[in-house]
């Protein structure tokens, strides 16, 4: 199950990405927002992170205007690794090297079709483990 959420600044991409997920057989759970009314990205990031930490969802996609606010908020949730990505190489590496739980995309930065390619490369990648897993563990141990 993939957790997806956005603030008002990412709602169009959220709908577009949901269409892609549906058409490609991915199950997802939408954590809002569901209107164009202004809202606060941490209020969406938190339940998405909680769904991952509880095991309800395996991966997450968060979208805001730039992707930055969502990545800051998600990375403040203990145990979560969120990667702010603007290209397909980074989104693949976010999984292969960093085993990121979540990718964060900016609707005002990244066009809709590139956003789909970014999602595709993240979801189709596999964590490589080994030395990368050790580095991920070290990074997580920095958490206070
Ligand atoms: C909302 O205007 C905007 O600040 C938000 O979507 C996001 O870009 C924050 O990082």
**Percentage of residues in DSSP E strands:** 15-25%
Instruction: Tell the overall outline.
Output: globular
Sketch the topology as an H/E string, one letter per element. Answer: EHEHEHEHEHH
In the CATH hierarchy, the third-tier topology is known as: Ribose 5-phosphate Isomerase B, Chain: A
Instruction: Count the DSSP helices.
Output: 6
Mean pLDDT: 97
Query: Which strands sit side by side, in order, in the main sheet?
Result: 2-1-3-5-4
Termini separation comes to 29 Å
Q: Helicity range of the residues?
A: 40-55%
Summarize this, please?
This protein is of the alpha/beta class. The chain has helices at residues 11-23, 41-53, 68-75, 88-96, 112-123, 131-140, and strands at residues 2-6, 28-30, 59-64, 82-84, 102-106. Strands 2-1-3-5-4 form a five-stranded parallel beta sheet, sandwiched between helices.
């Amino acid at each position: 199950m993939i957790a997806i959420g956005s603030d008002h600044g990412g709602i169009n991409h959220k709908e577009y990405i949901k269409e892609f997920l549906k058409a490609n057989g991915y199950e997802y759970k939408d954590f809002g927002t569901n209107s164009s009314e202004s809202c606060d990205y941490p209020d969406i990031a938190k339940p998405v992170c909680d769904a991952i930490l509880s095991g309800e969802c395996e991966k997450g996609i968060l979208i805001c205007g730039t992707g930055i606010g969502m990545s800051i908020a998600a990375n403040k949730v203990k145990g979560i690794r969120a990667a702010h990505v603007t290209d397909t190489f980074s989104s693949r590496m976010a999984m292969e090297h960093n085993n990121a739980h979540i990718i964060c995309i900016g609707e005002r930065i990244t066009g809709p079709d590139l956003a789909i390619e970014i999602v595709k490369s993240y979801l189709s990648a596999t964590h490589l483990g080994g030395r990368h897993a050790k580095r991920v563990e070290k990074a997580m141990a920095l958490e206070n």
